[in-house]
Design goal:
This protein is mainly β. The protein contains no helices and seven strands. A four-stranded antiparallel beta sheet has the order 3-2-6-7, with no helix packed on it. A hairpin with a 4-residue loop joins strand 6 and strand 7.
Length: 71
């Protein structure tokens, strides 16, 4: 169970990634593997459900995407 984020042409800072559940609880994913523009998140330890993935880029801008985790 993993999520792979690929942002061509953008450096991703793996220190600035978090998942937020529908109750507003914030989680920093365990098992982050990253390269220059790709990040792989291990999500097997999270419960199934809807989350918001928040990614802060090095230029200070944010990307927020709604995702569903199902096991």
């Amino acid at each position: 169970d993993r999520i792979v984020i690929n942002q061509p042409g953008t450096s991703i800072n793996s220190q600035s990634i978090r998942l937020i559940n529908t109750a507003g609880q914030s989680f920093v994913p365990a098992g982050i593997n990253s390269s220059a523009n790709t990040v792989e998140l291990k999500v097997s330890n999270l419960q199934s459900g809807v989350y918001w993935l928040e990614l802060k880029k090095k230029d200070g801008s944010k990307i927020v995407e709604r995702i569903m985790i199902r096991h």
